[in-house]
Write a structure and sequence with these properties.
The chain is α+β, with helices and mostly antiparallel strands. Helices cover 36% and strands 21% of the residues. It folds into two domains: 6-156, Adenine-n6-DNA-methyltransferase TaqI, Chain A, domain 2 (Alpha-Beta Complex), CATH 3.90.220; 210-354, Adenine-n6-DNA-methyltransferase TaqI, Chain A, domain 2 (Alpha-Beta Complex), CATH 3.90.220. The chain has helices at 10-13, 57-61, 115-127, 146-150, 159-203, 246-251, 265-269, 316-325, 327-333, 357-399, 409-416, and strands at 6-9, 14-18, 28-34, 51-56, 70-73, 75-76, 86-88, 96-98, 102-107, 135-136, 142-144, 153-156, 210-212, 218-223, 237-243, 255-256, 261-263, 279-282, 291-294, 304-309, 352-354. The strands form seven sheets. A five-stranded mixed sheet has the order 14-20-18-19-16. It has a four-stranded antiparallel sheet with strand order 2-9-5-7. Helix 5 packs antiparallel against helix 10 (357-399) and helix 5 (159-203) runs parallel beside helix 11.
Length: 417
């Protein structure tokens, strides 16, 4: 920050307003309530699914959003998304408020502090990781330490300088938004192209292809084991035996090479080790239908089905690719309960196409080549997104340390190309 720029604590230059939810005492008024789900990645508000709720008219009077209010996520978040996100409210008309998981930050004196400047500053603080150290999650939900947040020092250059910085950032970020959208689109296209190719290969069944149940091509076909209760007993964990969970399967790409938990000798004794090459199917929750092949011996719970294929009939890689192509079908099969799930019965009468073993292996070779190209593209565009994010952070850092002296159109133009 420039030496001549003064600063003040955020809590001194703004007021914080608490959110609200459904009303209990009439009279009521129907208003659009901004929730955590309406926060966009770029710090704007996605109003495509704003909740319209009946709230108490008296409470709404003090919580009606105004142009320039900054909505702060004070509760929520997750392991990869700390609380502290901000979104700028830019509507000039309509009745809108904000949920009790958020607060509204309102500038006290617009002659001292431009709300757009403040929004970009708080957005930078969040994306720099500042709020991560201000959160707690002892109750199972992450909460922001409001007092620590209010102590953040806000730079206060002269108002014309604030407005100049905002104009430069707006121009720069317009290019970065385009660059990000292009990279994300290309990343999605790479994945969709592989999925389309996978579906095409495995649906063009030949006349000699047999229809078989999975149990008919397996030496073992069953659910994992985790008999001990409670499941979170510490003595189950921390040993040398890999313990694969549904999230590990979802994060894998054909072969499962990483895991996040291990079993102790006690843990493995109440479970079982499945051999390398076992095809795993997640059968509950958000990961239902996700599949991967074990690249090592491992245990897994009863929320996972294991298939040890009969090598005389089937190829494990073919089976996993086959299940990938049926993923949407399996997910649909799992719907209709409080928690999505499938089970062994899902596969009891389900028939899958199996060519001769030699042809299965030829298909696997073709799919592996295509998958390798997909991974190369994913790596390229993921690196591009990382570079764009780093450029954005660099620009913001320069802006709020007083080093932003000229337009950045050249850098952002290059990023967009």
């Amino acid at each position: 920050m420039r030496d001549e720029w003064k600063s003040k604590p955020l809590g001194e230059v703004t007021i914080f307003l608490n959110g609200l939810w459904k009303g209990e005492k009439p009279p009521f008024i129907t208003v659009g309530v901004i929730r955590n789900t309406n926060f966009a990645k770029d710090g704007s508000i996605d109003d495509s699914d704003i909740a319209w709720l009946d709230v108490e008219a008296k409470k709404f009077e003090k919580r009606k959003l105004k142009l320039g209010d900054i909505i702060l996520e004070k509760s929520g978040g997750g392991p990869k998304q700390p609380v502290g996100r901000v979104a700028l409210f830019e509507k000039e008309e309509g009745d809108y408020s904000f949920s009790n998981f958020t607060s509204a930050i309102r500038v006290n004196d617009p002659r001292e502090l431009d709300f757009r400047f403040l929004h970009k500053f708080l957005f930078w603080k969040y994306t720099s990781g500042v709020t991560e150290s201000m959160q707690s999650h002892s109750t199972g939900i992450r909460n922001l330490n409001a007092e620590a947040y209010k102590d953040i020092a806000v730079p206060l250059p002269p108002l014309p300088e604030q407005q100049r910085i905002v104009a430069i950032l707006d121009e720069a970020f317009a290019g970065l938004v385009t660059a990000t959208a292009n990279a994300e689109k290309n990343l999605k296209n790479a994945r969709e192209l592989f999925e389309s190719y996978l579906s095409f290969i495995l649906t063009q069944t030949g006349a000699t292809w047999e229809k078989r149940k999975l149990s008919e091509v397996a030496r073992e076909f069953g659910r994992g084991k985790s008999k001990h209760r409670p499941r979170n007993d510490p003595k189950l964990y921390g040993g040398p035996y890999p313990f694969v969970q549904t999230g590990d399967i979802s994060n894998a790409d054909h072969w499962l090479t990483d895991y996040t938990q291990t079993y102790s000798a006690f843990g493995v004794a109440q479970s079982r080790l499945w051999p390398k090459g076992t095809v795993c199917i997640a059968i509950v929750g958000a990961t239902v239908g996700e599949t991967a092949i074990l690249n090592f011996e491992a245990c897994f719970p009863d929320s996972v089905i294991g298939i040890v294929v009969d090598e005389k009939i089937a190829d494990a890689e073919y089976v996993e690719y086959l299940l990938q192509s049926f993923k949407a079908f399996l997910k649909e099969k799992g719907k209709g309960t409080a928690r999505d799930n499938i089970n062994l019965g899902t596969f009891e009468n389900q028939l899958f196409p199996f060519p001769a073993l030699k042809e299965q292996r030829l298909i696997v070779d073709r799919l592996n080549q295509m998958a390798s190209r997909k991974r190369d593209l994913e790596e390229f565009y993921t690196k591009r997104l990382t570079a764009i994010s780093e450029l954005r952070q660099s620009i913001l850092q320069k802006a709020f340390s007083g080093e932003l002296t000229s337009p950045l159109s050249r850098a952002t133009k290059q990023a967009a190309e």
